[in-house]
Task: structure prediction
Amino acid sequence: MSLFFTADTHFGDHRTINIHKRPFANAAAMDAVLVERWNAAVGPDDEIWHLGDVARRAADVPGLLARLNGRKHLVRGNNDPDGTVAAEGWASVQDYAELDIGDRKLALCHYPFRSWNGQARGALNLHGHSHGRLKPLPRQIDVGVDGHDFAPVSIERLLPPAG
Result:
């Protein structure tokens, strides 16, 4: 089992193509690439944390989750209505989470923090929301698809050596 993170997929949202200058002709083309790259990276038995802003229409989320590999956790974003949160297919849903990966703590939220629990002890803040346009603080990583070739990113790519 591997561990992955992503954010800001905005499935079905044509506005995201224009606002964030995504290289797709339309939302259907964007969605096809997002699904293909997700499933190429994430296996059926892998864990994946989606750090918010899943899709434009909550009604589309159950079908999307059924097509996407992995055991899926949601950290709610500002564009995730109650219908997205309630969709069948999430292993867990929360507004904030902390994970311990070996001797590293991860603080997960849709939003980037100025400071976070364990920051001075090497903890990382994984977030979305900024679509790769925010200068990060040390140990702060935007896991959104805009900065990761429209694919989830593995824990191995995110964790710098401890120390």
